[in-house]
Design a protein that fits this description.
- It is a single chain.
- By secondary structure, this protein is of the alpha/beta class.
- 43% of the residues lie in helices and 18% in strands.
- It has a five-stranded mixed β-sheet with strand order 5-4-3-6-7. Strands 1-2 form a two-stranded antiparallel ribbon.
Length: 199
């Protein structure tokens, strides 16, 4: 009888210890999530600001015709700056194809670069980018102050810049859309904003 009472007492101690450990782990997971908060596109302060109206450009499309970058009725535009020599840009191409297909109801995706036209055309052929509008313009990159690649700018149907930044992965690309939907310049601005006091 004494052995049974002892065994039950030991089990209760173990259960209580496990409850304490679970609560401690839950707290540590919360702390970890705060430290590893979502990282949005890396925004630079140069070039047009969030909320500014984009300059309007009509540029030749290497895949035929011309591309107008600016306000479009009922269409937002994502201008994605890339280079044939940028490995991260190449890694993001399948993601851009997915975005182009999935968001085709409201979004146009334009690829933009600068440099040698022959290299750009070879890149279009090897990377199979014939279904994207593809423009080559140094002036466009200078207008948005693109200093590192890949870089993207999202603006709405009125040509208002909704979000922009350096893109290195899918999450950073999607953060442009999230920031636009939330009405903030970037996910970092949202995360860094003070929490409003509640009464």
């Amino acid at each position: 009888m004494n052995a049974l009472i002892f065994a039950v007492g030991v089990l209760w101690v173990i259960v209580l210890a496990l409850i304490v450990v679970v609560f401690a782990l839950a707290r540590q997971i919360g702390v970890l999530f705060e430290r590893v908060s979502p990282m949005g596109a890396l925004v630079n302060d140069s070039g047009p600001k969030i909320g500014d109206t984009t300059p309007v450009y009509t540029l030749p499309n290497l895949n035929g015709g011309a591309v107008t970058i600016g306000p479009k009725p009922s269409r937002s535009t994502l201008v994605f700056f890339l280079s044939p020599t940028c490995p991260v840009c190449k890694k993001l191409l399948p993601i851009l194809r997915s975005v182009k297909t999935d968001e085709s109801g409201w979004l146009d995706v334009v690829l933009a670069s600068d440099g040698d036209l022959d290299k750009q055309k070879r890149f279009i052929d090897t990377a199979k980018l014939n279904d994207f509008p593809y423009v080559v313009s140094t002036e466009l990159g200078l207008a948005y102050r693109v200093s590192r690649l890949p870089f993207a700018v999202l603006f709405d149907e009125n040509g208002t810049i909704k979000s922009k930044g350096l893109i290195n992965n899918r999450e950073q690309l999607e953060s442009l859309f999230n920031a636009s939907e939330m009405g903030v310049g970037s996910i970092q601005n949202y995360l860094d904003a003070p929490i409003p006091a509640t009464n």
